[in-house]
Design goal:
The protein has ten helices and eight strands. By secondary structure, it is of the alpha/beta class. It has a single domain, classed as Aldolase class I (TIM Barrel). The radius of gyration is 17 Å and the shape is globular. The protein binds phosphoenolpyruvate (PEP).
Length: 247
């Protein structure tokens, strides 16, 4: 199974559902549709509406983050995994670099993953090195630490997906070389094996994926799908990625 996850970030109002309707229509007619899943993470404000609308359709809905507590608490503006699940989401991102840079620690991330899984959300756990870490050849050690500090062998690996997103690549148009990315993806799977045993969670790539570079990514068979930011806000750009991946 391949995953194409569109992360809308701070984008979208109720009528933006038109974008998803087009993607849903494409997927429902696509001869390759059984080989991949489309998941969109709109902002919290749209989850309930979109999840209701796309129930029993081609697109699954997720949230972009969740709070590190279970159900209800006195934390202003926080949204818990229980609330997200109750709104109809099936997935949640955890550990996106935007949120890590706002102060998410490994301990907080571990609680997020734990409570998300407890509330029957599937977790897309994001990891990635920054520009300086890459320059200092620390990519693999950074990724290993991000994985081993948060993912626990007690977690149900069937409900976890890992998204490798080099921070320097997000929204920049810069992407890793094919050799570099293949090596990194294999390494991530090796670390996941050391945590979970033989069958590892799926590993996605994220960072400036678009309709033209997806052909290069496709050649790396270890990559199980993509986390797509900018290009997921346009039905045409998102569908182009799907078309070119399966061409
Ligand atoms: C992201 O924010 O998760 C992302 C991958 O963004 P972009 O595709 O725009 O680089």
């Amino acid at each position: 199974m391949r995953y194409f996850i569109g992360n809308w970030k701070m984008f979208g109002v109720p009528k933006s559902i038109n974008i998803l309707n087009k993607i849903n229509y494409f997927h429902s007619k696509d001869k390759n549709r059984k080989n991949y899943r489309v998941i969109i993470t709109p902002p919290y404000t749209l989850i309930e509406n979109y999840a209701k609308y796309f129930k029993n359709k081609s697109i699954s809905i997720g949230s972009q983050n969740c709070y590190q507590k279970d159900q209800f608490s006195s934390d202003t503006a926080a949204v818990s995994p229980f609330m997200i699940k109750s709104a109809g989401a099936e997935y949640t991102l955890v550990g996106h670099s935007d949120n890590r840079s706002e102060g998410d620690t490994d301990k907080m991330l571990k609680n997020k993953v734990f409570f998300a899984l407890k509330n029957k959300l599937k977790v897309v756990f994001c990891i990635g090195e920054n520009k300086k870490e890459k320059k200092n050849k620390r990519t693999l050690s950074v990724l290993k630490k991000q994985l081993t500090k948060v993912l626990d062998k007690k977690f149900n690996k069937k409900n976890i997906i890992v998204a490798y997103e080099p921070i320097w690549s997000i929204g920049s148009g810069k992407i890793p070389t094919k050799d570099e990315l293949k090596k990194t993806t294999i390494y991530i799977k090796k670390v996941l094996k050391s945590i979970f045993g033989k069958q590892t969670p799926a590993v996605l790539y994220g960072g400036s994926v678009d309709g033209s570079n997806v052909k290069m990514f496709k050649e790396i068979k270890e990559i199980d799908g993509f986390l797509i930011g900018g290009a997921s806000k346009s039905s045409k750009k998102f569908i182009d990625i799907l078309k070119n991946y399966y061409r």
